[in-house]
Specification:
Elements: H1 2-13, E1 25-26, H2 28-32, E2 37-39, E3 54-64, E4 69-79, E5 83-93, E6 103-108, E7 113-114, E8 121-123, E9 126-130, E10 136-141, E11 148-155, E12 160-162, E13 167-170, E14 179-197, E15 200-203, E16 206-215, H3 219-222, E17 225-232, E18 236-244, E19 253-261, E20 264-269, E21 272-281, E22 288-300, E23 306-314, E24 320-323, H4 324-327, H5 330-336, E25 345-349, E26 357-362, E27 365-370, E28 372-379
Antiparallel strand pairs: 1-13, 2-12, 3-4, 3-16, 4-5, 5-6, 7-8, 8-9, 9-10, 10-11, 11-14, 13-14, 14-15, 14-16, 17-18, 17-28, 18-19, 19-20, 21-22, 22-23, 23-26, 24-25, 25-28, 26-27
């Protein structure tokens, strides 16, 4: 009972968590032992909009045929159910040949309204709407004149969540968890539309990825580190999201991801691994900044064929390093400001000099495909 009370205090005011041990993290990997993944329905992409402390995001990663890369994102954050803040972010990376700085805009939203069926998000000058058949999102934002968004993302492969509900739970009583982490993915989509900048419109015809994430606790209580891989090739897409809990939950590693081709899920599950094969100390914050990575997916197809996939190589010059405490909106600072030892940074990469190659084996068939890779490494706490 004392641990539970201390945990609730930590959730609300940010005091240090007690050591619960790994048993207080019920990884989605347990679900995946019997149900590796489930395909998404419209119900699985509904907004939760929790009253308790949480951060919920919908993020669209856009890979334009022109070589431009972008993500657009809405962040819905609640602090102990007392204060809710919603932010719209747009980030555009230009091809090296254009030699332009990153376009970044972040704006607090007003007039926020989630539709009665929980499928559509609205705010003043902003809307994310799911089509009636559940296969496409219309994403529009006039919240910032420097980055006017008007794109449509249409699903090609089925969406999936690992296990039965995509959720890792936190708490000493599994029947009454005090926190959760959930991811759902649309791993392969087409995109049409534009992001209009001060220099004119950028055509984002190409590929896209959609991820809905719910962190049902303070983010730094759930995860100390993150790795994210987003590969898009001519035929295949591969996605991976890995987080490591803080020592309070035994530094448990949870990994979800999958590989798709066209309208088929080749594999999805939790038996994946992200490794920084080379790294250097960042003198600004002492984090081990990755210089080369290896992402591995291992599992089986629905009909029992073994699946092995590897994506590895140098990361080249990073796209960006984000000091979260310096750049994120006020509401996130509120959530993590009182956490001792927290110094969150995100490192973003888009290697192009050595073309990323997905090496895939399905049963006896071996496939090698060149594509594009956007990857992130996030360090929050030791």
């Amino acid at each position: 009972m004392m641990n539970w009370a201390r945990q609730q205090m930590a959730n609300v005011v940010g005091t240090q968590e007690p050591i619960h041990g790994p048993s207080a993290c019920q990884s989605v990997a347990e679900q995946a032992k019997t149900t590796p993944y489930t395909e998404l329905s419209k119900d699985d992409v509904k907004w939760t909009a929790m009253d308790a402390t949480s951060v919920e995001t919908q993020t669209f990663y856009l890979f334009a045929d022109t070589g431009h890369l972008a993500f657009v994102q809405v962040i819905y954050s609640s602090v102990a159910g007392i204060r809710t803040t919603v932010q719209w972010n747009t980030k555009v990376f230009y091809p090296k040949a254009e030699n332009k700085p990153i376009l970044w805009s972040s704006d607090q939203l007003t007039g926020v309204d989630i539709s009665e069926n929980k499928l559509n998000f609205y705010a003043d000058n902003c809307a994310i709407e799911l089509s009636e058949d559940g296969t496409a999102y219309s994403v529009k934002s006039l919240t910032n004149e420097k980055s006017i968004v008007n794109v449509t993302v249409t699903r090609v492969s089925p969406g999936f969540q690992v296990g039965t509900d995509g959720t890792t739970s936190f708490g000493t009583d599994p029947a009454a968890p005090w926190g959760s982490m959930r991811h759902v993915f649309w791993p392969r989509n087409t995109c049409v539309g534009t992001i209009v900048t001060e220099d004119g419109p950028i055509d984002f015809k190409g590929k896209a990825v959609f991820i809905h994430c719910l962190q049902g606790m303070k983010p730094h209580h759930l995860a100390a580190r993150w790795n994210f891989a987003n590969y898009q090739g001519p035929e295949y897409s591969a996605i991976m999201m890995e987080f490591t809990t803080p020592p309070s939950y035994g530094s448990t590693v949870v990994n979800v991801g999958g590989i798709v081709k066209g309208d088929q899920i080749i594999y999805a599950g939790s038996s994946n691994k992200a490794t920084h094969t080379e790294f250097k100390e960042d003198p600004e914050n002492t984090w081990p900044e990755p210089e080369a990575v290896k992402f591995e997916w291992t599992g089986t197809t629905k009909d029992g064929k073994a699946v092995e996939a590897v994506l590895e190589g140098p990361l080249e010059t990073r796209l960006d390093r984000i000091d979260i405490m310096a750049e994120v909106p006020y509401f996130v600072k509120m959530i993590i400001a009182s956490a001792a030892g927290t110094k969150p940074y995100i490192y973003q990469y888009y290697p192009t000099e050595a073309t990323p190659t997905l090496k895939l084996k399905i049963g006896d068939e071996e496939i090698s495909e060149e594509g594009v890779l956007f990857t992130e490494a996030t360090f929050i706490s030791e």
